[in-house]
Write a structure and sequence with these properties.
By secondary structure, this protein is of the alpha+beta class. It has 3 helices and 4 strands. The protein has one domain: Alpha-Beta Plaits (2-Layer Sandwich). The relative contact order is 0.29. The model has no long low-confidence stretch (mean pLDDT 94).
């Protein structure tokens, strides 16, 4: 399994989750876990996704998520799960 952490932050409005989930569905990215918090008008979401069937590079994923984020007015970032594992080993 190729797990990646996706974070999304921005001003909440209709269509944000749909845009992200549509991108995932179109690119064979499976959401394994998801957490969302909305504080007043701001959304903060974290997802663990499986990229095992994803056919593009990690760089393309980051660029595509930047475009999706720009389209809906939020910031979306992808980080390899390994980064988090290494941080906790130090």
């Amino acid at each position: 399994m190729n797990r990646t952490v996706i974070t999304l932050v921005g001003k909440d409005h209709t269509g944000i989750i749909a845009a992200v989930c549509n991108y995932f569905a179109e690119n064979d990215i499976n959401i394994l876990d998801i957490s969302q918090t909305t504080v007043q008008e701001f959304i903060n979401m974290m997802m663990i996704v499986d990229l095992s069937k994803y056919r593009k590079s990690f760089k393309e994923l980051s660029e595509d998520l930047d475009k999706v984020g720009e389209k809906v007015g939020v910031s979306i970032k992808a980080q390899h799960e390994d980064i988090f594992d290494m941080m906790h080993r130090i």
